[in-house]
Amino acid sequence: MFENVIIGQYLPGRSFLHHMDPRAKIAAVLFLIIVIFLVNSWNGYALFGAAAIAVYFLSGVPFRYIRKGMFPVFILVILTFFLHAFFTREGDILFSVGVFSFYEEGIRQGLFISLRLLLLVYFTSLLTLTTSPIDLTDALEQMFSPLERFKFPAYDVAMMMSIAIRFIPTLLQETEKIIKAQTARGADFNKGSMRDRMQAFVSLLVPLFVRAFRRAEDLAYAMEARGYNGGEGRTKLRLLVWGWRDTLCCVLIAAFGVVLLFLRQ
Amino acid sequence: MAIIELRDLEYQYEESDEKVLKGLNKKIHQGEWLSIIGANGSGKSTLSRLFNGLSQPTGGSVLVLGKKTTEEDSLQMIRREVGMVFQNPEHQFVAPTVRDDIAFGMENAGVPREVMLERIDEVSRWVNIEHILHMEPHRLSGGQKQRAAIAGILALRPQVMVFDESTSMLDPNGRKEILETMNRLCRESGLTIISITHYLEEAFMSDRIWFMKAGRIEKDVTTANIPDQLEWMEAEGMPLPYKYQLYREAKKRRIDIRTLRTMVEGE
Ligand SMILES: Nc1ncnc2c1ncn2[C@@H]1O[C@H](COP(=O)(O)OP(=O)(O)O)[C@@H](O)[C@H]1O
Ligand SMILES: [Mg+2]
Hints:
The complex is a heterodimer of chains A (265) and B (267).
Chain A: H1 22-35, H2 42-59, H3 63-87, E1 93-97, E2 100-103, H4 104-130, H5 133-144, H6 154-166, H7 168-184, H8 194-225, H9 244-262
Antiparallel strand pairs in A: 1-2
Chain B: E1 2-11, E2 21-29, E3 33-38, H1 44-50, E4 59-64, E5 67-68, H2 72-81, E6 82-85, H3 98-108, H4 113-126, H5 142-154, E7 160-164, H6 172-187, E8 192-196, H7 200-203, E9 208-213, E10 216-222, H8 226-235, H9 242-252, H10 257-265
Parallel strand pairs in B: 3-8, 3-9, 6-7, 7-8
Antiparallel strand pairs in B: 1-2, 1-4, 4-5, 9-10
Helix pairs in contact in B: 3-4, 3-5, 4-5, 5-6
Bound molecules: adenosine-5'-diphosphate and magnesium ion (MG).
């Protein structure tokens, strides 16, 4: 049932983006998220679109994966568009349908906001599609580690994240096992009244939780036995390597930001 | 010198009103293989966690290489010297891949990266997992996960390794792999092994057996003369390995081995 789950939707590969340092990718995405709110002209969006296409070719990710990842936000995008189109009453009336009038400014803003949302989700999807969860965690840990000075537990949070990621397949396997066992005993997760289904669901959740607590205890002992004692004095096997691609990315994206500023109206 | 010493050791869980361990006085010697057997709930796991300070005694003390586990300064040393392999292979695999999991203990100990790489190479070859270093846990068998755990501990160069029913969740192949590894650890590398088990045939591979019952060590016997021990083992309801059952049965009925052979093979 769960054999084909892709964790955190990561797609292993050897593209330009896959070879980049996750820190550079995260920084780039954060930068893009900020500058996209500065864009207020068609030219600006055209440039952003061109960048999106270029990044697509650098990612080596088949389009259907991106489409799949973005599908859920389409509903949100359409909703936002119509909200703006209905309620913004500035500029000339473009056309009317019955009592509703659509104004030029409303359509424009609706389109802009929709584009922003789409581009935002698009770039973040590409980040998670080309970066393994563990690389993401490592990068976030390093980027947040200066905050350790202000008592922000970057190491502990990163450790928690990586363990959570590590145990996703375990959890799925267990769920599958319990479903099979309950089905063998006559439980049905797909048919029956709401009440029956709720009961089946509870019969799934209870053993899952019991096992999770058991596992947490075992895990705590196992980690302590191997000397885990928080982040202090810890060394790391995994290295993040900053390469020419990452420097290039930073330069390009800075230039991109400057050009966008000039395209503002 | 004893590598681990128990002095009037007592343990009581906070929530309970009965002691789980009741005044144990024992020494474990360098290089020996000790196995601990006993019914569920007799206190074996509790005892094993006291060997390296995962829990602290509520009475008496545990000494590892002469240092009390309660001494804050010695605790990191003790954790490094006494490695623990637990029962559930899935629940002690903490990292995304075998390589990372082996490194976990060394990272905690602050071992430099170059040294880590060398040791991973060395220990993974020693336990035969050098071909699966890149694999994620959900693609590994139980035996492979347990060997990864052993490798991670070996990389810290310990003197003692404690196995708490580490073979009980494995298939027969996995069990055999781990037992062979334990045997090599003790006989080739000279490590002190403490193995907790339900299986007498595993206990018979060791040098000494502690039999635990309700928080006490009821028997402390060497495996040099197993036939003499069979009687009480059977009386305690322990399932004897097949060859010993046969031996006991034949002896009880005064059947001579040669007669047994004719009975089975015919005249
Ligand atoms: N965390 C705990 N809290 C309270 N009692 C416990 C805890 N863990 C174990 N016990 C009790 O201590 C006794 C010994 O348990 P344990 O050491 O796990 O035995 P064994 O490993 O021999 O099966 C049992 O009666 C058990 O119920
Ligand atoms: Mg136990």
